[in-house]
Amino acid sequence: MNCPHCAYFGTRVLPDVVTKLIKTGKIYYVFKDFPLNEDAVMAAQVARTLPAHEYFPFISELFRTQDQWAFDPNLKTKQDYANALFRFAALAGMDRKSFDAALADKKLEAFILNELKIGEKQYHVNATPTFIINGRKREGAVDFKQFSRWIDEA
Asked: From residue 58, how far is each of 62, 88, 104, 132, 144 by CA, in Å?
């Protein structure tokens, strides 16, 4: 959620992937969390607690606004990051009680961190973004043309 390369893909490439590849039935897209630090874990927990129809709009907004919640030099503590993240969760309709419960949910946190472990073990993911296309690992903040080439090759 706080990877600039993932943000590039999520804001500049994914919209075309959705309209030209997913909605046309050419591909099936599964987003897996791969949080590399604590604030990314928190963001994933909040996103996964929102209603399903809010999930992708929320993570798209987090990608678009990383400088306001992930890279703001004024944010120093875990609580600072949480407060910054809450501003976006509130825009998605989440109240503070639900937000705090999402961050306190140890089972959800374990699920997210387990996804990371599976990605590392099963697919040898060590960078983000990483795409697994028919079992083949591809990495990088690629443009739509390159991503589309990968799909065509698969």
From this structure: 6, 8, 19, 23, 22
**End-to-end CA gap in the chain:** 27
Q: Which domain holds residue 106?
A: 4-153
> Would you place residue 74 in the very low, low, confident or very high pLDDT band (cuts 50, 70, 90)?
very high
Backbone angles phi, psi at 134, to 5 degrees: 50, 45
Per-residue pLDDT reduced to its tens digit, 54-70? 999 999 999 999 999 99
Distances from the Cα of 124 to the Cαs of 65, 81, 132, in angstroms? 29, 29, 10
Q: Long-range CB contacts (< 8 A, 24+ apart) of 70-73?
A: 70/1, 70/2, 70/39, 70/40, 70/43, 71/2
Q: What CATH number is associated with residue 145?
A: 3.40.30.10
Give the pTM. Answer: 0.91
Those residues with Cβ within 8 angstroms of residue 41's Cβ, 6 or more apart along the chain or in another chain: 35, 109, 112, 113
Count of structural domains within the chain: 1
Cα dist from 83 to 60, 103, 107, whole Å: 19, 12, 22
